[in-house]
Amino acid sequence: MSTFYLCSKNHSIVGQMDTYLAFHRDHHEGERKNLDHEKKFNPTFNPTFPSLQNVSEESQRPNFLKSSSDSPYHLDRDVSSDDALNKIRTANSVTISPELFEKIYLNPQSAVKGDLRATFGNPTPLALLGFLLSLSPLSCELMGWRGAGVDGIATVGAYYFIGGFLMSLGGILEFFLGNTFSFVVFCSFGGFWFTLGSTLTPSFNAYGAYAADPNQPAQGLTSAGFHASFGFFLLFMGLLSLIYLICALRTNLVFVAIFLGLLLTFVVLTAAYWHLALGHAEIAAKLQVAAGAFGFLATLAGWWIFFAQMLASVDFPIQIPVGDISHLITPLSERVKPKERYSA
User: Fold this and answer.
1) pLDDT tens string for the chain (344 positions)?
2) Which one, of 253, 219, 250, lies nearest residue 323 by Cα?
């Protein structure tokens, strides 16, 4: 098995492909006996390439550019990527760098069976779009820009059909691709938008149950019981954002900024609702504006990473950074490997 490196125009390695090349060699009877002996007493012996034992990985890499032009594996410098893949008989195991993977999927790279990632499109931008087109207007409404307000009721339809639907759909597709972190994040926030939309929908009677007059359910939106109760939901959404924030430390700075903004948004918004329950309307109004500001900052980071993913999806020549920090925390699997090697 050899490694074929995929490079960008500036000669930086963006991925690699494991290839199996068909080589023919004649073996004498004595050589076959030596091979059997090596396979029996050397567990790391490679029967396909016996001449490459105890040789550095760099020396194992074939030089296709110096090969004869008559060879079926010869690759000129101007050969296209499609022709190169057609010339080389591979094991269909094409990988990309961990940095690029986390930028595209917002999920630490993990080994999964199958090639669904190479077969289907990337659902991450779709889920991000549902998040941004719901939180962005809600944040502006919480800050009261241009006279907006009333708890974001004007955009309740977006909570259902953009935030809830697109994030849930994207999360389910992430599940089939094997991206556990993205799957859980998108599905949980999809459920949040469905919950917020149904709470503000009169037919669900969520706030109408707190109204003093059953014939005027809108009174429930100003009741102390509704504010105190809904504050607990926002509080635990903040706890969930804290967990996601810690996990995002294995991805990139932009994703960390999103969850930090969401954590502050939910915590401050919880305080606003509880102050409303206590009758502190002036303090609650200031806290609501602050919560909207934190949410707006989270959306700015979200729009940035959405733009970065869309540029990467069309192989745009200009790419924007997202601040990869996956290398700062050593994965548990990397720490376990040396221990297993020493114990063996």
Assistant:
1) 555 555 555 555 555 555 444 434 444 445 555 545 554 555 444 444 333 344 444 444 445 444 445 555 455 556 565 565 455 444 344 444 555 555 454 555 555 555 666 667 899 999 999 999 999 999 999 999 998 987 788 999 999 999 999 999 999 999 999 899 999 999 999 999 999 999 999 999 999 999 888 888 888 888 999 999 999 999 999 999 999 999 999 999 999 999 999 999 999 999 999 999 999 999 999 999 999 999 999 999 999 999 999 999 999 999 999 999 988 888 887 777 666 665 55
2) 253
Query: Rounded to 10 degrees, what is the CA torsion of 194, 196, 200, 202?
Result: 40
Nearest to 192 by CA among 248, 250, 134, 139: 134
314, burial (CB in 10 Å: exposed 0-12, middle 13-18, buried 19+):
exposed
Sheet containing strand 13-19, strands side by side: 2-7, 13-19, 90-96
Longest dimension (CA), the chain: 98
**Residue 302: CA count within 13 A, CB half-sphere:** 24
The Cα–Cα gap between 254 and 252 comes to 6
Q: What pTM value is reported for the model?
A: 0.67
Closest to 220 measured CA to CA, from 276, 143, 269: 276
Q: What SS3 class is residue 45?
A: coil
Taking the mean position of all CA atoms in its chain, how far away is CA 301? 14
CB contact set of 321 (below 8 Å; sequence gap of 6+)? 308
Read off the amino acid at residue 39: K
